[in-house]
Amino acid sequence: MRAVIVARLALAGCALLLAACASFTPGNPPLAKYAPDTGYRFERLDQGDNSDELFVIVSFSGGGTRAAALAYGVLEALRDTVIAWRGRKVALLDEVDVISSISGGSFPAAYYALRGGKIFDEFQDRFLYRRVQSDLIGQVLSPANWLKLAAPAYGRSDLAAEFYDREVFGGGTYADVIARNRRPFVVLNATDMTTGTQFAFIQDQFDLMCSDLAGVPLARAAASSSAFPGGLTALTFRNYAGSCGYRQPPWVQLAADDHASRANRSRTARAENRLSLAAEGPARPYIHLTDGGVADNIGLRGPLDAISSTNHPWSVLRMMNNRKIDKLVVIVVNAATSPATDRDQAASVPGLIDTLATAATVPLDNYTADTLDLLTATVNQFNEEARLVEGCRKISARQGPQCALDIPAPHKVELYPVQVAFEYIASAEERSWFKNLPTTFELPRETVDRLRIVGRRLLAQDPKFRELMKALDGCLPANGQAC
What we know:
By secondary structure, the protein is of the alpha/beta class.
């Protein structure tokens, strides 16, 4: 009798393990048929009173709760900033067109995409003031979750995604974001672990995998964007490429075929990555995503590509060429730190966690200034070309009507690159305090509030933001008072 009971228990255990392996599969459904006029895409969002002439892009960096609180403080400031636009007073937040985020910055970005203005009533208690890291550790240590964690297709980040879904986002999916149908277009970014390239949670990206983004929980996107190597695991998504009739845009094959010319290597690389991901079969049946900061530490690469390329899914350059944009505002919220370390005070070999964290952040942090300079150079080049066209028109016109050139009048764009970063804090003591905050998902309430306040202050003090306020007859109240 005892042997029978043991055998039954063993069978039950095996059945549970098999069920675990079968149940914890990637949570992205297939796309029945490729439909470029549906899904979460920039051009499908209702503009409302949001104008294209004033085009505002905001990027949120990574950095755990530190980054989330700084980004949230900037959102509060944008809500309170009043500008004169199109003959009326409006909040600058209502003119934000795109938010691009990575890692910790993806939590306020995703919540704003899901709940809009309700973020200011709910997000502090749901996330910022919450002991998220302790809760996650408790989830991992709970025997109730050990069976799931034993499944090969389920990791710590899957457990985190379930927690975020239940406790932070309330089960919200991209279908809910699509139903809101409002700008800004919020782009959460992760990193494709195999290629090291940026992976954006937009339908254009999921089209390549013949997958329907509408069925993906916001929590899973945020968990992918913040799956910091070492502490958290990569998240797995199913690739159904070849099953929905997807068609690559013409530029992709042309760019791939142009590989040997080396004329536009970045364009060719984007094309080859798309072809690899969308290869029928598929060639890569599963896609593993890790922290977005591995590919882009400030969330600005996507917007930069959009500003410099007409082949981007939400090309800003195309809008500039079509004379839709007069003022381009790019607000970079960068929560990067430079914590003091005693690593160089001893000959000891740095540990694994220290090495992983350094490899994942320090090299990219060094390129932040280069990325911002490239943004400015890209818009300057656009305006320089416009200036040259105007010069040619004037020279030819002076030779007589028969020499006048039939070239469309050039259109210049005013760029306002705004930076919110700890390095611009004037006080050395205060700057050091913020730069030594830990990258965790748990900070004291008073620290969160200091981050919110300093985000507001740094935005108001930025020289380009002050120029923008002057141009738009705007103001950001210093102490919460109405303008």
